Amino acid sequence: MLRLCSALALIAVLAACQSAGGLSPADVARNSAPGVDTQETGVDGLLVGHRLMEAGEYELALRAYLRGAGEQGMTPDVLSALGSVNLKLGRLGQAETLLRRAVKADPTSVPALNNLGVVLMERGNIGEARAVFQQAYAQDSGNSDSIRENLRLAIAQSQSGLYDETADPPAFSLVRRDKGQYILLSQL
Questions:
Q1: CB-neighbour burial class of residue 110 (10 A; exposed 0-12, middle 13-18, buried 19+)
Q2: What values do phi and psi take at 170, rounded to 5?
Q3: What residues contact residue 148 under an 8 Å CB cut-off, 6+ apart?
C-alpha cells in the first residue's frame, strides 16, 4: 500500500511539473510565420495605382499613389497621378492644385498639362483650359489623338458664345505617364 501511495504521489508531482497545453520549441519553430526579407523591394506604388485606375478602383489607386509618394517623394509623376485620381473621384479642387504643382515642377509633362486642361474645362475655365491644351499639344508635337480632340473641343467651346446646358458635356480624355511614356486612360 505504501508503494502505491508513493507511486501516486510521484505521478501527481510529475503531472504538476508539466505545462498544460504548451508548445514545445520544435512546435513553435514549425508553426511560426515566415520572416520579412528587408532586402527585397516592394512593388512600385505608382505602377499599382496605374493598374487600379485601369480597373476603375479609384480609392485604392489613391492609396497606392500615396504609398508611391512615400517611397519616391512628391515627384511630378506622383503629383500628376494624384491629380488624375482626384479628378476621377470628382475632387476638382484637389485635382487642380496637384496638377498645377505637377506642371510647375515639370512644365513639359504632357499628361499633367492635359489633365489640368480637363480639370479647368470641368470647372468652367474654358479660356485657360484652351491655353493649357495648346501647351500639351505643342509638347506632344500633335502625336496624341486624345490631346488633339481635347484641344478641338476646348477651341469649339471657347468660340461658341452660348453654352447649352441641356447638351451632354464633351468627354475629355485623361493621360498618364509611366516611366517616360504616357498612356491614354479610358473615358469617364
A1: buried
A2: -65, 150
A3: 137, 142
Cell of 125: 475655365
Closest CA to 147 of 120, 121, 118: 118
**Phi and psi based region of residue 183 (left: phi greater than 0; alpha: psi -120 to 50; beta: remaining):** beta
Cα gap 89→5, rounded to integer Å:
79
**Residue 122: pLDDT band with limits 50, 70, 90:** very high
pTM of the predicted protein model: 0.66
Per residue in 130-173, pLDDT (tens digit) is 999 999 999 998 898 999 999 999 999 888 755 555 566 666 66
Cell of 183: 498612356
Where does 45-160+171-184 sit in CATH, by number?
Answer: 1.25.40.10
